[in-house]
């Protein structure tokens, strides 16, 4: 029965059908069935508006920086945290689509582009089961037709969480944490660093320093949300439903 059904509708569609039956998706904003974030709710997210202080903190290490949304909105926070901490990997597609939109605003210079997700330490990735930045990067690369190099940069030390740390503490927390294991794969190329959120830019800047030393031509920061240290722990409303209701 199942064999003939998968032949008719396709294996991937069949898998999606089963997931929708047993783990139905509901919009995090309005509870519309069938999507994690509906178009109407995504339209309410506040777009990121760079400030002069942001330009200063990123211009020292990055060629360009783009963020899709401000982290100040409860739904932006819900998307990031539900993906990262509740394991809803489908939200990586939502974030990736926003990054693809932002990517079009970055001037092209003709150099070959490689996409690198901000790496997690192996212990943290083992505990979580995935790296949300890598999921986003893979989807972005698939849409844009670019190469992903998730193993070029490695986090060699498991650091404490950046939440509640000051700007200087964050910079110190990630200093010397990253190394480039595969410089031959990125030398002479334009690198797009992908992550779900950036706050002070300390992590992106630290990785950028490693990439510049490896001989890349550009380092571009591309993130779903830009926040500040005061809103990282702001309350998040998951559509006024407990987390166990995420799947219906």
Furnish the topology, listing elements before pairings.
Layout: H1 2-9, H2 11-22, H3 39-42, H4 52-59, E1 64-70, H5 74-86, H6 91-103, E2 113-117, H7 122-128, H8 132-144, E3 147-148, E4 153-155, H9 167-173, E5 178-180, E6 190-198, H10 202-213, E7 218-226
Parallel strand pairs: 1-7, 2-3, 2-6, 6-7
Antiparallel strand pairs: 4-5
Helix pairs in contact: 1-2, 6-8
Outline the structure in words.
The chain is an alpha/beta fold. It has two domains: 1-44, no CATH class; 47-233, 3-Layer(aba) Sandwich (Rossmann fold). Helix content is 39%, strand content 15%. It has ten helices and seven strands. The protein has helices spanning 2-9, 11-22, 39-42, 52-59, 74-86, 91-103, 122-128, 132-144, 167-173, 202-213; strands spanning 64-70, 113-117, 147-148, 153-155, 178-180, 190-198, 218-226. Strands 1-7-6-2-3 form a five-stranded parallel sheet, with helices on both faces. It has a two-stranded antiparallel sheet with strand order 4-5. The longest helix has 13 residues, at 74-86. It is globular. Residues 1-11 and 230-248 have low confidence and may be disordered.
